[in-house]
Amino acid sequence: MEPDRSMRGRLRDIVAGLSLASMNIPQVLGYTRIARMPAVTGLYTVLLPLIAFAGFGASRHLVVAADSATAAIFSSALGRMAVPGSAHYMALVSMVALLSAGFLLVARLFRLGFLADFLSRTVLVGFMAGVGVQVALAMTRDMLGIDVTAHNTVLQLFQTVTRLPRLNGPTLLLSVGIVAVIMTGERLAPRLPLPLVTVVGSIIASMAFDLAGHGIATIGPIESGLPRLRLPDVSWNEMLALLPVTTSCVFVIIAQSAATSRAFAQRFHDPVNDNADILGLAAANAAAGLSGTFSVNGSPTQTAMAVQAGARTQLAQLTFAGVTMIVLLFLTGPLQYLPRCVLASIVFTVAIGMVNGRAMLAIYRESPGECGLALATAAAVVSIGVEQGIFLAIALSLFRHVRHSYEPHTMLLCYDTHSGLLEPQPVSTGVQTAPGVLLYRFCADLFYANSMRFVSDIRSLVAPARTQPDCIVVDASAITDIDFSAASDLRDLFTGLRQQGVRIIFGRVTPYLRADMDRHRITPVIGAENIHAQLHTAMAAAQRIVNMPPPA
């Protein structure tokens, strides 16, 4: 039975690769308009780079190909260095890809894949939703037959609305028909490769009925033949000038690829190896630069297309590369008749599917604050861009975490009269854990932003002279680190308490915390005998101090 299942899986991936090629080959041709490169270079991005990532990368789902984010970054910068579309411009673009490969290799050597750990599931849900909305809005221009020049999504929407009177009726009707067929077919026949069927059918219809003559735009002529491997002819000074734009591209490549691979790995419960994926991305960009095309990236839209088509391994991407080679050699003629609105309609349905409303609702039910973070991520991706949206999402996640650390939970632990167990209660004066003893817990590491919370809590507990405890036991189970600023505040606090006759005892001190206390000179202030690895020994020491007879 196992070989049969394996064979069915391979067959499923091959069929998914065919369907993926039908959707993505026209799409990567469209990306060349953003990159300001010849149309055939879009096909080059899904030939050798796909094979290189499949050989060196770890993700089973990530599709590495042309992407609008990186294309927009380098095209705007390189357009000032050379005439777009010229041989010199193409050499500069290919060199950016080769430099990106070098930077990514360095990132792999330094194991920078850990940066992806800052992308929480909440951020990934918002990121995918934002990309889905962004792509869906971008596709409406071709679905309506409207010419839109803006790159920003908000400006694209504004231009589309203002130019609605110029929409092309036949284009709109064909687009609505394609969307209806695909969305209905997904419900009634989910295993049927409808995108492939619609692409082939639309090419036949375009050739038979001259759709271009009825105002429906088509892709147009494409150069045939395989790419030639060569190093781009770029001077040393030009290479140095390319470093800033290359750095921007690399940040986007790492962040967007990691976000996409993790999102789909979590969906299918697959292991994640971000460092191996970075190596695969380096190999893919090296292949892109040597084959005369532009930087490639892990594409969320194309990966979603692959998954929707049924792809579960990189065999689908290898099939995609094989189909691309056949197209380059034999089928560039028929492909020129493909209507642009058909491609846009297929991508539109995929983009809508990337907005996971159920996941967003589940986040809202469990944590409204994190749902707000997901929505903020989605809004940032739509309004200011994919790369900025990712970095803003990471910043917001870190800010939310720091905010929790800045305002940690603090409590007193007191014995329950019925159970006799220690139970938490709010920090308040006049309450003692045992006669003369207070047990205080601070639930975070101590650093410059929250150390005054610790200081103010302790001072409030010893302020009333009539209820001042003899000993305060600090349950340090949640404290693993003390920074320089917090240590200074604590030394001043403990020195003042000693002058008041109040003893401070630490319990549940880990070796890491003890090392910090020794290094920051806190141990001499409170005494090494008052630092305990267990809480019960700390409490016993406090009881001995309270019960000790006063000096004669």
From TrEMBL:
Location in or out of the cell: Membrane
CDD domains xref list: STAS_SulP_like_sulfate_transporter
All residue ranges annotated as the STAS domain in the record: 427-542
InterPro entries: SLC26A/SulP_dom, SLC26A/SulP_fam, STAS_dom, STAS_dom_sf
Topology in membrane: Multi-pass membrane protein
Pfam families, alphabetized: STAS, Sulfate_transp
Name of the protein in its database record: SulP family inorganic anion transporter
Organism: Komagataeibacter melomenusus
